[in-house]
């Protein structure tokens, strides 16, 4: 019996040692990715307007891109995830108030905004954490300039958000690319920019808008595994999924109300329909055309 306990202890100790070594490898690998410098990325200047029409356009872009879902309604920042296994993931205060960008740094320029939004790179040259820049990288210069103009127009709000802390589960998920932690890695930094995208009811305009869907529904829009532990399976929104069976009016009604033609209520925690309902008719019809015309 003593020998059994002895060998059981040896086996258990060996397994623990292997797990600790494996986690150490994962930890340092992910930390290396987070600390990588992206100083070689060429950040092309974007004209930032200041007229009221541009700010209105910027507000619309911010709404349909879900900027305030993370940065809060007044862009004062907030804690997005606070979980003992995952850690504390925080969206920063984007205003000029205490704890905001201009008080955390000596200066925060228009170029810094472009680098963060379009490339997922912070002022220190390292990747931002969880910033979906891969969804913003293809924004036209006009739309990106308007978005930055709107953010800069927000009133100052004093809010000092806590620092980001990462726990083991996040490191493991990020290591196996199951969690989009290292933002800059998912961006094509050399992609040519476009100056203007004309809003019209076409599949091409729908494709431009559908980039916002790829963060959850993947690049193929066919969905797949849950994004984080405990979240539901991500549905297929191509013509081979449920959306393919819906008419244009049913698609519009679903995104406007959060209720599918089958009577299912969409949970805004996982499907941000309150954000999607702010699409204009032109935008939502174009999105429908694009999804319906995707190859089977």
User: Which residues form runs of ≥5 with pLDDT under 50?
Assistant: none
Walk across the major sheet and give the strand order. 1-2-3
Helical run tally:
12
Q: Which oligomeric form is depicted?
A: single chain
Domain module tally: 2
**Backbone CA Rg:** 22 Å
Biggest beta sheet summary: 3 strands, antiparallel
Q: Give the overall shape, derived from the CA principal axes.
A: globular
**Would you count the extended β strands for me?**
3
Structural class computed from helices and strand pairing: mainly alpha
Helix percent band: 40-55%
Report, as a whole number of angstroms, the end-to-end distance. 62 Å
Secondary-structure element order, as H and E? HHHEEHHHEHHHHHH
Q: State mean pLDDT (0 to 100 scale).
A: 91
Strand content: under 5%
Structure explained in plain terms:
- The structure is a single chain.
- The protein is mainly alpha-helical.
- The protein has two domains: 52-186; 203-292, Orthogonal Bundle (Cytochrome Bc1 Complex, Chain D, domain 2), CATH 1.10.760.
- 42% of the residues lie in helices and 4% in strands.
- It is built from twelve helices and three strands.
- The chain has helices spanning 2-34, 52-65, 67-71, 101-104, 110-119, 141-152, 168-175, 203-210, 214-217, 248-257, 273-276, 281-292; strands at residues 78-83, 87-91, 165-166.
- Strands 1-2-3 form a three-stranded antiparallel sheet.
- Helix 8 crosses helix 12.
- The protein is globular, with a radius of gyration of 22 Å.
- The protein starts with a helix and ends with a helix.
- The mean pLDDT is 91.
């Amino acid at each position: 019996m003593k020998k059994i306990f002895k060998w059981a202890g040896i086996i258990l100790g060996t397994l623990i040692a292997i797990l600790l070594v494996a986690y150490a490898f994962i930890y340092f690998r992910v930390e290396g990715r987070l600390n990588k410098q992206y100083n070689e990325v060429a950040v092309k200047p974007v004209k930032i307007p200041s007229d009221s029409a541009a700010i209105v356009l910027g507000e619309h872009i911010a709404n349909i891109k879900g900027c305030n879902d993370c940065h809060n309604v007044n862009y004062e920042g907030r804690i997005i995830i606070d979980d003992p296994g995952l850690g504390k993931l925080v969206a920063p205060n984007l205003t000029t108030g205490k704890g905001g960008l201009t008080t955390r740094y000596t200066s925060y320029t228009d170029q810094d905004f472009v680098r963060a939004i379009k490339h997922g790179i912070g002022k220190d040259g390292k990747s931002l954490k969880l910033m979906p820049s891969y969804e913003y990288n293809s924004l036209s210069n006009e739309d990106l300039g308007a978005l930055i103009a709107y953010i800069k127009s927000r009133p100052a709000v004093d809010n000092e958000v806590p620092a980001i802390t990462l726990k083991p589960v996040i490191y493991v998920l990020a290591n196996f690319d199951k969690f989009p932690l290292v933002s800059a890695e998912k961006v094509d930094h050399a992609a040519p920019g476009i100056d203007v995208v004309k809003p019209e009811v076409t599949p091409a305009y729908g494709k431009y808008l559908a980039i916002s869907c790829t963060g959850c529904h993947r690049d193929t829009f066919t969905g797949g595994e849950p994004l984080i532990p405990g979240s539901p399976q991500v549905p297929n929104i191509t013509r081979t999924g449920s959306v393919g069976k819906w008419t244009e009016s049913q698609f519009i009604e679903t995104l406007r109300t959060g209720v599918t033609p089958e009577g299912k209520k969409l949970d805004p925690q996982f499907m941000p329909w309150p954000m999607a309902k702010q699409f204009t008719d032109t935008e939502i019809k174009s999105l429908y055309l694009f999804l319906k015309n995707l190859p089977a």
